[in-house]
Protein: 6-carboxy-5,6,7,8-tetrahydropterin synthase
Organism: Rhodoferax mekongensis
Amino acid sequence: MTQAPAIPLPRSCEVSQKFFFDAAHTLKRTVDDAEEIAGSRRIHGHTYHAEVTVAGSADADTGMVVDLGHLRNAIQVLRPQLDHHLLDEVEGLGPGTLENLAAFIWRAMAAEFSGLSQVRVWRDGIGDSCTLRAH
Ligand SMILES: Nc1nc2c(c(=O)[nH]1)N=C([C@H](O)[C@H](O)COP(=O)(O)OP(=O)(O)OP(=O)(O)O)CN2
Ligand SMILES: [Zn+2]
């Protein structure tokens, strides 16, 4: 009997962890709609979802790119900096946009995870999102 050829695996594997936080913000808008601009300028809140992804090859011993427990521990440190905060007051964030939230999360996670490959932030209620990728 002939043996089936070994199927090569891609070298890189991505593992992810999701989390969410509730936060308030005000926002300066550039749209024409005066009502939308006024609404965004008032303090209001959103539920934000985020996903952090680390890429690499699975270690031969552990079978893991990174133990997801490390990712969850880092998120546990980061999350209280955003959850139930007025984003306008969060040091180092800038205007509370999806872009700045993704950058803020990126900076916090990249310090610990050299293989950080993607950070995504989105709001289900509105259906918008921002994705930061390493390459
Ligand atoms: N490039 C970006 N553009 C916009 C962003 C952003 O983060 N990056 N964000 C917004 C607004 O925050 C978003 O449209 C929500 O608008 P908002 O006034 O905050 O609230 P809504 O009434 O539209 O949403 P509800 O959840 O229904 O209250 C705009 N552009
Ligand atoms: Zn908003």
The chain has a mean pLDDT of 95. The chain has one domain: 13-133.
